[in-house]
């Protein structure tokens, strides 16, 4: 990763305590529609914001217009977004509760004598590559009477054109199609393929859809015109505005409404909306002799956006059932550690998987090659690199837990590129391209150099995938590269030169204790890999090198002034999170003696701040992912829970309103600038041991 630009983070220090219940807690920002790096819509919270008191935002903090109104016996209430509609009268529904699971965020708001339940479902379908690759999310709205009487209910929602660009001055055009489904489609009139603006994609189309039941109506047009039409009439005009213009020029919006009819105390059948964004091709990937255009996996099954949307909306009830099953399993597994841990995990799942896209290529005949699967990840927020090895690595537990094959497909693009010989360095590349979605490699070798870090990461992840899946094909195919990286670690990891680790924001340093752990784990991992591949001579050779290194490392890395590991050799009062020992545990290597674990267990509680244990002695900041990894190393639950409770406190403190930041200060509980990053997948570390 690279810390390129500081995205401003505005701390919310509201003293008012909100009136609704939040279960399991009130996070910094609530995932609403989070499926890909470009479909990433959140409700900023700080100390609490109702669904209808602020606008939803893209992960960067820019507004994504998404509004909702309900009419009850002719009286209009807003339930989503913060629209102002001059000349029309409506009131805000009153939020009663908010809850979230791994895949769903649910709000209940009172609109007079009706309670409206608004459920946002961003599915996690890890073993179904077609479904997991569909870049869509659901919003379902149902109503129930709370006073024993029946009431007439109409429901409305719209999106703005902010969903298709990071630049509101650009011109968009749109169409509405009717049939079994009402779909508004909107896109830039001058798209840039593979382009980005302020992290938004600059090509492809956004789609807002709902089933076209007899009572459904649509309208496109200026925000205040379309919304006033519903507020005043409870029905839309079934008209299209064809005056194509800039996103912010009289703000075109795309409205869809339903007449739900008379509603009693039994909740009405939900009105379902889908919101999504499709671009094709999705990514450009470097191959020998050029580049390859890659498309999202779902194209192997559906030939048009309309076909995907029809399938997606038709699948809603089944999707809810699958989501409830998935959520219950995660909840049950994580609760075995602690209630706080279960909350952290539930908040992490959509964010982490929402940085990934599953792709395929075309055969020369033009048909899709579904044997050619590559997963790509955007290094969100710290920068926009593609498949950053030291971002995949912290997130690795979520792939092992949900579907290890996703991890294999993430590594595959890195292996294939380096197997071409286009990358000149003897160590592992840092990433596949500086700017998502262009995975163009680094043929000049000028990527951000993290030699020990990335070699160790690749070895650990490759072995861990084979161990979890029993599939050794990747080890077989790339044993030369894996051995090449091991040679590098043999010469450079016991005494690591002055270099950066994944925590590049902390600066470079020679002889980093934790980095040496990573390198030595990598050497031992290659020993295991040679064992799997049947080369027993190299297996025992590398095993003995790793053991010898551990013994030497202990003499270099143990403080003489206190019983703990140092941050760097010969720096006696220094210390840091030795999170790379997680590799020793995950791979079952038993490489480092129990005494090291015991010593660290005894040490960390003595250096715990209000919001947790600092990353190391250079600063007071820490990382959530590394704290959770370190918590897995503790030999008792009290020491383990210090880390878990710290991350929980940070996530639930209300000190920030950005999607779950992994980097924050342990004294003030203040954000350091990262947000929405996939590394929170590492919070699932306990679930894979
Ligand atoms: C919108 O713009 C795109 C890109 O210029 C163009 O291909 C498409 O035909 C336009 N659609 C409409 C409805 O004007
Ligand atoms: C499909 O992809 C696989 C994996 O990259 C490749 O080995 C195979 O040759 C491809 N098939 C065709 C027909 O292109
Ligand atoms: C790194 O540690 C080794 C072993 O203690 C020592 O010989 C070497 O001087 C150290 N290098 C630096 C740059 O501190
Ligand atoms: C063990 O591996 C190292 C590093 O590759 C190599 O230098 C050495 O010759 C090997 N030893 C044996 C006995 O194969
Ligand atoms: C944990 O570490 C402490 C401190 O070294 C040690 O006294 C204790 O026996 C260890 N407990 C277990 C369960 O290994």
From TrEMBL:
Leader peptide range in chain numbering: 1-19
Keywords from the named record: Signal
Glutaminase A N-terminal domain sequence ranges: 103-333
Domain Glutaminase A central: 338-686
Coiled coil region boundaries: none
Keyword Signal: yes
Pfam families linked to this entry: DUF5127, GtaA_6_Hairpin
Name this protein carries in UniProt: DUF1793-domain-containing protein
């Amino acid at each position: 990763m690279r810390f390129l630009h500081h995205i401003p983070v505005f701390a919310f220090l509201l003293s008012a305590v909100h009136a609704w219940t939040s279960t399991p807690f009130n996070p910094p920002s609530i995932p609403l529609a989070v499926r890909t790096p470009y479909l990433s819509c959140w409700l900023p919270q700080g100390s609490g914001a109702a669904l209808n008191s602020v606008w939803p935002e893209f992960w960067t903090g820019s507004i994504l217009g998404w509004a909702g109104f309900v009419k009850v016996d002719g009286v209009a209430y807003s339930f989503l977004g913060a629209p102002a509609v001059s000349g029309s009268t409506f009131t805000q529904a009153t939020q009663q509760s908010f809850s979230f699971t791994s895949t769903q965020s649910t709000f209940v708001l009172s609109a007079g004598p009706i309670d409206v339940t608004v459920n946002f479902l961003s599915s996690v379908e890890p073993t179904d590559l077609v479904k997991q690759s569909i870049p869509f999310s659901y919003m379902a709205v149902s109503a129930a009477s709370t006073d024993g009487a029946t009431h007439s209910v109409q429901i409305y929602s719209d999106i703005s054109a902010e969903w298709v660009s990071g630049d509101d001055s650009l011109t968009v055009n749109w169409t509405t199609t009717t049939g079994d489904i009402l779909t508004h489609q909107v896109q830039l009139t001058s798209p840039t393929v593979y382009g980005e603006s302020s992290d938004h994609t600059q090509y492809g189309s956004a789609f807002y859809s709902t089933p076209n039941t007899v009572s459904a109506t649509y309208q496109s047009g200026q925000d205040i015109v379309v919304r006033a039409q519903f507020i005043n009439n409870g029905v839309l005009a079934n008209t299209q505005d064809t005056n194509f213009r800039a996103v912010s020029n009289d703000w075109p919006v795309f409205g869809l409404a339903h007449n739900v009819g008379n509603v009693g105390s039994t909740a009405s059948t939900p009105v379902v909306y889908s919101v999504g964004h499709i671009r094709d091709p999705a990514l450009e990937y470097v191959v020998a002799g050029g580049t390859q255009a890659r498309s999202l996996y779902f194209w192997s099954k559906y030939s048009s956006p309309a076909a995907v949307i029809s399938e997606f909306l038709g699948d809603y009830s089944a999707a809810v059932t699958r989501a409830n099953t998935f959520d219950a399993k995660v909840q049950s597994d994580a609760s075995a550690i602690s209630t706080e841990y279960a909350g952290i995990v539930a908040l992490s799942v959509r964010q982490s998987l929402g940085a990934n896209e599953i792709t395929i290529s075309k055969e020369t005949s033009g048909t899709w090659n579904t044997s050619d699967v590559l997963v790509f990840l955007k290094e969100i927020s710290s920068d926009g690199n593609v498949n950053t090895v030291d971002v995949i690595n912290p997130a690795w537990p979520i792939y092992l837990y949900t579907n290890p094959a996703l991890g294999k497909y993430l590594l595959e693009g890195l292996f294939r590129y380096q197997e071409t010989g286009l990358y000149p360095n003897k160590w592992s590349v840092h990433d596949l391209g500086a700017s998502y979605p262009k995975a163009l490699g680094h043929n000049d070798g000028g990527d951000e150099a993290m030699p020990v870090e990335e070699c160790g990461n690749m070895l650990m992840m490759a072995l861990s995938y084979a161990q979890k899946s029993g599939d050794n094909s990747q080890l077989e195919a790339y044993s030369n590269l894996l051995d090449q990286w091991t040679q590098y670690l043999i010469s450079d990891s016991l005494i690591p030169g002055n270099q950066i680790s994944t925590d590049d924001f902390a600066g470079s340093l020679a002889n980093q204790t934790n980095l040496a752990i990573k390198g030595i784990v990598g050497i031992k991992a290659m020993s295991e890999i040679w064992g799997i591949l049947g080369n027993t001579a190299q297996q025992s050779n590398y095993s003995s090198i790793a053991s010898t290194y551990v013994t030497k490392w202990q003499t270099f890395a143990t403080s003489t002034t206190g019983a703990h590991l140092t941050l760097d050799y010969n720096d006696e009062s220094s210390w840091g999170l030795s999170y790379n020992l997680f590799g020793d545990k995950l791979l079952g290597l038993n490489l480092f003696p129990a005494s090291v674990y015991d010593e660290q267990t005894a040490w960390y509680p003595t250096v715990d701040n209000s919001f947790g244990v600092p990353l190391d002695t250079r600063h007071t900041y820490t990382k959530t992912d590394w704290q959770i990894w370190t918590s897995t190393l503790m030999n008792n639950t009290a020491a383990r829970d210090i880390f878990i409770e710290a991350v929980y406190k940070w996530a639930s403190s209300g000190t920030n309103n950005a999607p779950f930041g992994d980097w924050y200060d342990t004294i003030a509980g203040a954000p350091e600038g990262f947000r929405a990053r996939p590394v929170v997948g590492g919070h699932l570390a306990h679930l894979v041991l």
